[in-house]
Backbone:
C-alpha cells in the first residue's frame, strides 16, 4: 500500500541531501567537483570504437548532464573545466587523445552543458520534473555538445586531409551513430535528476 508519510519522509530526505550539496564548505565543494571531473574522465575509457570515425561512443555525457544537477551551476561547470584542464596538463583521459584532436569540440561542449543545466535547474524550480529535464538535457546534448563537436571535427579533418568533409560525411562521423546513445544517456540522466531533485526550494 502507498504510504504518504513514507513518501513525504523520502522527499524531505532528498531535499536535505540536494540542499546539502549546495551548502558544502569550499573544500568539500572542490573535492566533490574533482570527483565529478574524475568520473567524467574515467567514463571516457568506457567506449566503443567505430571504424569509420575518430570519435568513439563513450559514457561521458551521462556524467556531464548530471554535473550541474549534483553540484549547481557554478561547481557543476567547474567540474568540466577541471576535467578538460587536467587533460590538457597531461592526464590521459580524453577519448580523442587531445583537446586539439577530433573530439576537442565535444569537450568544450561538456563545459557549456554543465554550466547551462546547472544554471537552469537552480533558477527554475518548476522545471524539476522528468519531461522538462529530459528536454533540457536533450537540447544541451544536441546544441551545446554536438555543434561544437562537429565544428572541430570538421576542422580536424581539414587539417589532416586538406579539405572539409561534406555535411553528410561529417554527420555520419560525428552525429548519426550517437543518436541512440543520446536518447539512452539523456533518459537515464533525466530519470536520476528528477528522482533526486526537490520540487520546491
Residues:
Amino acid at each position: 500500500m502507498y504510504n504518504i508519510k513514507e513518501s513525504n519522509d523520502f522527499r524531505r530526505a532528498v531535499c536535505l541531501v540536494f540542499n546539502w550539496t549546495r551548502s558544502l564548505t569550499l573544500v568539500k565543494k572542490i573535492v566533490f567537483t574533482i570527483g565529478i571531473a574524475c568520473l567524467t574522465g574515467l567514463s571516457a575509457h568506457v567506449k566503443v570504437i567505430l571504424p569509420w570515425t575518430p570519435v568513439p561512443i563513450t559514457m561521458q555525457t551521462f556524467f556531464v548532464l548530471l554535473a550541474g544537477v549534483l553540484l549547481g551551476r557554478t561547481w557543476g561547470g567547474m567540474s568540466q573545466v577541471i576535467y578538460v584542464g587536467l587533460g590538457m596538463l597531461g592526464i590521459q583521459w580524453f577519448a580523442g587523445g587531445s583537446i586539439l584532436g577530433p573530439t576537442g569540440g565535444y569537450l568544450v561542449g561538456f563545459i557549456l552543458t554543465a554550466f547551462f543545466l546547472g544554471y537552469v535547474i537552480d533558477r527554475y524550480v518548476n522545471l524539476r520534473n522528468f519531461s522538462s529535464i529530459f528536454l533540457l538535457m536533450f537540447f544541451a546534448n544536441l546544441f551545446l555538445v554536438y555543434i561544437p563537436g562537429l565544428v572541430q571535427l570538421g576542422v580536424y579533418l581539414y587539417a589532416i586531409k586538406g579539405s572539409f568533409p561534406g555535411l553528410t560525411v561529417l554527420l555520419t562521423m560525428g552525429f548519426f551513430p550517437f543518436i541512440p546513445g543520446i536518447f539512452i544517456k539523456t533518459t537515464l540522466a533525466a530519470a536520476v535528476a528528477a528522482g533526486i531533485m526537490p520540487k520546491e526550494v
About this structure: DSSP finds seven helices and two strands in the chain. Residues 130-161 form the longest helix (32 residues). The chain has a mean pLDDT of 86.
